[in-house]
Amino acid sequence: MTMKVITGNEAAAIATKLARVQVIAAYPITPQSPVVETLSAWVESGELPAEFVTVESEHSALTVCITASTVGARVFTATSANGLAYMTEQVWWAAVRASPS
User: Fold this and answer.
1) CA distance 97 to 48
2) What is the CATH classification number for the domain harbouring 23?
């Protein structure tokens, strides 16, 4: 068995691919930019069959995820601490969507 040392961003991208996400909402901003850059390359090459949606803000990224998950898609977005603060308004809606009726 061989071992490879990778960054946390690389690990997140690989985990996302292995989870077979169908929709990726991307607002690339440091320090998580490498995650969505890697996913974008995989989507473009056909290695990851998913819709890659480039959005204008963290708020919009979470809105895309909430909307796509409402119709049953497996979704992904990445953010940083400050990005999560910008998503705060939408986090509640994500929690409501995820909870059983």
Assistant:
1) 26
2) 3.40.50.970
